[in-house]
Amino acid sequence: MKKMYVSMVFFLFIMSLFLPTLNGDKSIQENLIHVDELLFLNDTCKILFIGSSYFNFNSLPVLFEYLALSFGKDVYIDHHGQNGLYLDDHAYRSDTESKINEQDWDYIILQGVGTNTAYPDYFTNHPVYPALEILRDKIYQNCESTKMVYCMPWAFEDGMTWYQDWTDTYGDMQDKIYDTTLNYSNDIGFMIAPVGWAWYTVLEEQGYPLHYLHLSDWNHPSIKGSYLMACVIFSTIFLESSAGLSYHGGLLEEEAIYFQTIASNTVLDNLNLWNICEKPVIYVDDGNNDGPWDGTSENPYLTIQEGINAAKVSDIVFVCDGVYYENIVINKTISIIGENKNKTIIDGCGKDDVVSIISDRVEFTGFTIQHSISELENGLWWKAGIRILGSNVVIDGNIIQDNQMGIFAKQTESLTIRNNLFFNDSITFYPYDTGYSTRPELRRDHFIHCIENNFVNGKPVVYLVDRSNFQINREVGQVILVNCTNIWIRNITVSHVDFPVLFVFCRDCSIENSSFTHNDGVCTLLNSDGNIIRANLFEDGFHGFLLDYYSKNNLLVNNVFSGNQFCGVVCEESSNKNIIIENDFIDNNLRNAFIINAFRNQWIGNYWDDWIGLQYTLFQSFPKVISGSIFNSHQQITSLFNFDLNPSLNPYEIR
Fold first, then answer.
1. Which of 6, 53, 200, 538 could join 544 via S-S bond, C-beta 3.0 to 4.6 A?
2. Which helix H or strand E contains 202, and what residues bound it?
3. 301-312 pLDDT per residue, tens
4. Phi then psi for 433, rounded to 5 degrees?
5. In terms of residue numbers, what domain contains 167?
6. In a 10 Å sphere around its CB, with 0-12 CB exposed, 13-18 middle and 19+ buried, how is residue 83 labelled?
7. Are 262 and 293 within one domain?
8. CB 486: neighbour CB atoms within 10 A?
9. Between helices 195-206 and 253-268, what is the axis angle to 10°?
10. How far apart are CA 467 and CA 155, in angstroms?
11. What is the DSSP string of 278-322?
């Protein structure tokens, strides 16, 4: 390596003064607090950096970690290396092998040296190729699923003009590094984090300012160079743009965004070139108005649906930043990746579902999904930003906002829904949507999914399976309980979501002293028994409360059901032996209560603003008749079994 012009120790000390600490970076600290509030942590991405001084300068692994955290990624970072080590040193060191074997890493990032990569036939004392082969074998022997990433080195700032009588400039040396790295990647099979190529792009655009990405030793990275490297590694691992991330590493915002953009474009525009994706990549860009259109990065398709139609099973459709006014149907097993979830937008224009996934094993990440059809008044309650009919689907890292439903999944299995932000939307699992000739079976496996690190209107989604003796008494965005017992929900407020609370196969749980208002869905019990719903407000929703699929022996007491678009309370499909007592039913638009094949419930002493006894004193001895249907429709007939025999003359002072 070239001789350094400053003392290593002194430099590291000085740079440590400028590196932000975890406690000092407010945005990172807030993110950590936010994640810690979750009941379950999402799958952590475990990353090991193996290198030497190029990683040590400016604490590159720490820079990367802060970038990832600012995006909401849950990462575990470890770093193994010391100044002066080459990859062939690591290939034979026992401590490096022990670190590799320490756990099943998701990614191992390797750092090489420019001279040995550019001129492997001349600088033979530390050969790169055999070192990469040995490290690859050790990595895969420990864990076959670990992905090995080699950081393409950068050239010396003055190329090789300092060495003997060589004349290779910076550009000459970087071209040789580029060629060798691609050849080694094709032979050995590692992913490339194209750090050196991103450096080359920046220096070309900036006119080669002296000591801009390099330090004054013409070799090691400045803080700008390290930050650019961290951004490149971010996009390489997560296949997402870092543009717009809030963590700037101490750089000016404008400068940081410039580096983020260069890094993202360098990686994401050439996924196949860098061996990041073994699968073919089809590109889409709404800016390619004039064509031609063949799905390459040079000639991307204009619409996402065109990209989907052209894709084959297991292909990747990569969608560049832009606003796509489409309603897309994904009918094959592919991955669809948006460049940046904040800037890659699919707008349904108020027509139908925005995204319909009807195939299994689809991966969908990196988008903003908005504006599905919104016709709740016509009963189209199931229309969604993302409608899922396939199983083993992954929905990861999206923004879903202002749809009728956020995500609606019907009779699906083994979904993964994680790291999504919902605004005025949430997650709904349900066995049916529109009409059916035979009522679908309610199956447990249609509700067992991987639901992690999702937020609704800034508050976490709570998803519990097979849990008992647990209390939820803090602000949450949505609650989904499956096969739970003795879960107590108290003093929460949920508004502007879809189904605020969903109990499936739950026993002896309770909801008390809580408020559910302005929601597109309904608080629902499915095949759930012995639960207590007490002293809550259910207002301005689709319905107020729904008991469905044989939900029995539940108690609804001292609640207010008001202003709901259709009904205050609905009992369906043999949901019998429930007691609905001393509640207020006020101004629900269609009916205060309705029953479908559920005629054996007790309605006792409720206040009904549509009871005939309030209008005419002559009829105050009359019961309140609960209308309903013996069919799975809303054909109204009168049931002999559903009356409130003692309606209240006055509303209760419940809240």
1. 538
2. helix 195-206
3. 999 999 999 998
4. -125, -75
5. 23-268
6. middle
7. no
8. 14
9. 130
10. 56
11. SS-EEEE-TT--S---SSSSSS-BSSHHHHHHH--TT-EEEE-SE
Residue indicated by tokens 């849990």? 467
pLDDT of 15 reads 37
Find the range with the poorest average confidence among 36-45, 185-194, 425-434, 635-644: 36-45
Local structure of 594: helix, strand or coil = strand
Question: Where does a domain end: 234, 268, 302?
Answer: 268
User: With left for phi above 0 and alpha for psi between -120 and 50, is residue 527 left, alpha or beta?
Assistant: left
* Per-residue DSSP letter, 633: S
pTM to 2 decimals? 0.72
Q: Over 50: is that where the pLDDT of 573 sits?
A: yes
How far is Cα 178 from Cα 200, in angstroms, rounded to an integer? 10
The listed range with the strongest mean pLDDT (513-517, 593-597, 631-635) is 513-517
Q: Is residue 552 part of a domain?
A: yes
- Does residue 51 fall inside a structural domain? yes
Q: Are residues 317 and 250 in the same domain?
A: no
What mean pLDDT is reported for the chain?
A: 88
Specify whether 40 is located in the same domain as 125: yes
d(CA 444, CA 64): 40
| pLDDT greater than 50 at residue 522 | yes
- Amino acid identity, position 538: F
Residue 42 has a pLDDT of 43
Sign of the torsion formed by the C-alpha atoms of 576, 530, 537 and 498: negative
Domain co-membership, 77 together with 217? yes
Question: Who has greater pLDDT, 177 or 382?
Answer: 177
pLDDT at 1 over 80: no
Q: What residue has token string 């004039």?
A: 290
How far apart, in whole angstroms, are the C-alpha atoms of residue 613 and residue 308? 61
DSSP code of residue 221: B
Question: What does the alpha-carbon distance between residue 545 and residue 568 come to, in Å, rounded to a whole number?
Answer: 6
Degrees (nearest 5) of the Cα angle 516, 519, 521?
Answer: 105
Question: Do residues 119 and 259 share a domain?
Answer: yes
List the CATH number of the domain containing 157: 3.40.50.1110
What local confidence, expressed as pLDDT, does residue 655 receive? 61
CATH number, domain of 509, equals 2.160.20.10
Decide if pLDDT at 435 tops 80: no
Helices in 207-301 by DSSP H: which ranges? 223-238, 253-268
Assess whether 140 and 288 both reside in one domain: no
Identity (one letter) of the amino acid at 161? T
Instruction: Tokens 């970087």: give the residue.
Output: 174
Amino acid 616: pLDDT: 83
**8 within some domain:** no
Residues 281 and 302: their CA atoms lie apart, in Å, by: 15
- Are 212 and 251 in a shared domain? yes
Closest among 527, 478, 488 to 506, alpha carbons compared:
527
Give the mean pLDDT of 150-178: 95
Tell me if 388 is assigned to some domain.
Answer: yes
Mean pLDDT of 205-209: 95
Residues 305 and 362 grouped into a single domain: yes
Across 220-225, average pLDDT = 96
Q: Which of 209, 214, 61 is nearest to 149 (CA)?
A: 61
Q: How many residues does the chain have?
A: 655
Residue 611 CA to residue 622 CA, distance in Å, equals 9
Number of structural domains found in the chain: 3
Could you tell me which residues are beta bridge partners of residue 595? 571, 628
Q: What is the DSSP code (8-state) at residue 96?
A: H
Contact assessment for residue 222 and residue 202, using Cβ atoms and an 8 Å cutoff: no
